[in-house]
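Budget justification, computational time. The allocation requested in the original proposal was used primarily to generate structure tokens for proteins on the priority list. As evidence of use, we reproduce two of the resulting records. The first is shown immediately below.
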Amino acid sequence: MRLRVEYRVGPELRFLANLDMLHTIERALRRARIPYALSEGFNPHIKLSLGTVLPVGLWGEREYFDLELMADMSGEEFVKRLNPVLPSGLMVLQAVNIPPSAPSLMSVVNAASYAFKVKKLDEAVLDQLQMLMHRPELLVASRGKKKNRIKDLKPGLYKITMMTHDQFDIIKIWVSTGQPVNVRFDELIELFGTCGITAEQLVDVWRCGNFCRVEEQFYTPMEQVKLL
């Protein structure tokens, strides 16, 4: 059987690399005596598949992994057994059973949302942010494998919202993570610079979640299972 797991990576673990996160979860599964399945061969490993990589320097409100089990276990029992052995900053939020034939996380997740906490913005900057979605092009220097190339983020920007507070503002943005363009959080920071937001104004950045975008609608990987 397979479980799909939603978990939180707190700010204190923002500098944990993807491979270290994988090893941390594997050690917790062993401590919790979860009946995980192993691959075959000379070097068997836990059949655990993380979702899209959480960039180093970011924390995540809702991250995901799929796990194959050798014995039946409810999602509630899994959460109950795993959380007590996880390190501080890491918490399982929920787990659900998924069909053995369900597509992998990597094949269904095609969007993400990021939040940027910034020092209080003036009206001129807020107006520039509001106009981002109306620009014909959103050109930045690529930060991916094809560095030093100009990249147009426009096709991969889906929605921007803003929440204002007394001392700070939060910009939340939904973007594509594959086709038509893979939008990185550091490219968004550069884009915000064109609106007048400086690096000194940036207080915090985190990923709010990964999504499966289907015909303009955003579903979490947990909700996506119900569409199968």
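The second record produced under the same allocation is shown here.
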Amino acid sequence: MPTLPHAIIIGAGFTGCALAHDLALRGFQVSVLERGEIASGTSGRTHGLLHSGARYCVNDLEAAIECIEENKILRKIASQCIEYNGGLFIGLNDADLEYLPKFLAGAETCQISIEQISPEKALILEPNLNPALLAAVMVPDGVFDPLRLALAFAASAAENGVRFFPHHEVQEMVFDGGGNIGGVTALNKHTGNLYEFRGDITINATGAWAGILASLAGVDVPIIPTPGVMVAYDKRLVNRVINRLAEPGDGDILLPQRRMVVIGTTSFEVEDPDYIPLDKNQINQMYACACQLVPGIAYALQRGAYVSARPLIKTKMVGRSLSRTFKCYDHKESENIEGFVTITGGKATTCRIMAEKTADLVCSKL
């Protein structure tokens, strides 16, 4: 090409920043528009779990395999952001024990390195666990600082020439004479001025807001914003990620984060990801679940409660049955609109592979 292709990325969360980094390495001119600060949406409100994939290895094998593969890669390329402390799945009742054989088989199928250990050994590793635990399995989980991970990708991207435009909210798509998208107009929320950004490709990386943004182009992206409540407590009572050995459910993960522990999460659907009120009943539910895993939570103080909306892809299944994997939409194929691509779904752990597959699509289109 006679000039560098220009990609406009809308959204500066994990995926948008990772995509900017990837495209810059491939020789693109890149502009990233974000209506707030970097990682000011869902990415800044995650609990910071580096998934081993074990949570999904029974019912969502595709997501599980993506997670364990990306877990290994992120530990290599972003180790400064990650506390690779490992994790435990613990069983507390007969139903958990019935789930154990399926869990072990699923982890083997997905090639997740695990080790079943005795309850006594688990209590030596983590003395604050519920002493009534009946089973324990070690898994390669970890935790990361959400802001640092996003900024690591963004800093590398900026070093390679990417321009970031925080506090620029997209107002409308710019169509060319043939009905295809050639850019966007965005409102600088500091100055109140409108600016036009022209590019060869526009990429929707807005996560839970992907459906709303896509509607500006007259296309449909089947995203269900699915929030979850997380609660932080002021004592670091464990040094590993503690998971309930059961089907994915509310309050099944407790993880250390700096000098705190965080319990997550619930799962419910909303129409507007910008308005998600905190439900006191869900906060109380998280407290009860945390105390089941680590009874010492009862002697800790609540540091804070927060909520974020997952960008789950709509399927025939509902609720927690929705897949945690991702999808990249080429709107030329689906709606015959050239110049517009959407990447959504997935998890923080899979942001790099989401960026890679999106960049592959963009390069093939150009």
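A brief technical remark on that second record: The two ends are 9 Å apart (CA to CA).
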